Amino acid sequence: MNENFYLVYVTAKDHEEGKKIAIHLIEKKLAACANIFPISSFYTWKKKLVEDNEVGIFIKTRKSLIDELISEIKKIHSYDVPCIVSFKIEKGYTPYLNWILDSTKESTKNKTCAVLKLVPLKKSRSC
After folding, report:
1. Is residue 109 within a helix (H) or strand (E), and if so which, with residue range?
2. CA-to-CA distance for 7 and 126, rounded, in angstroms?
3. CA–CA separation, 22 vs 35, rounded Å?
4. Smallest Cα–Cα separation from 32: which of 110, 96, 111?
5. How far apart are CA 64 and CA 70, in angstroms?
6. CA 95 to CA 77: how far, in whole Å?
7. 73, 82 in Cβ contact below 8 A?
């Protein structure tokens, strides 16, 4: 299997925003699946320590779709600087990985098409 698979981790302000992101990505075939779960987050923002209740989102996709996926998340995310990071899936259950392929689109990024027409050579008496 030549395709590389990735898990993308995103945080969002609440379940509704997480759901909006997940559905958007799945409908665009940029993601096969998304899992949303509650998290407690601690971070520094504008020089202040912040404690927040957020949601984490695990998104399963192809490596070739990561850039487009990030771009789509940034378009609809409410945060100025959303957490969007990806991790390579080193190994996985082959039928599940095949399902990711079947559930996502093929990337058109950096894809070129060439059509070759094979024409039989006429026999010649000299070379």
Report:
1. none
2. 60
3. 8
4. 96
5. 12
6. 32
7. yes
Domains along the chain with CATH numbers: 5-103 (3.30.70.120)
Of 14, 8, 6, 34, whose CA–CA distance to 77 is shortest?
14
The pLDDT tens digits for 16-27 are: 999 999 999 999
What interhelical angle do 66-76 and 15-27 show, nearest 10?
A: 140
pTM, to two decimals: 0.82
Decide: helix, strand or coil at residue 106.
coil
CA 89 – CA 101 distance, rounded (Å)? 14
**Span 63-73, pLDDT tens digits:** 999 999 999 99
Q: Order of strands, edge to edge, in the sheet holding 5-12?
A: 33-45, 48-62, 5-12, 84-88
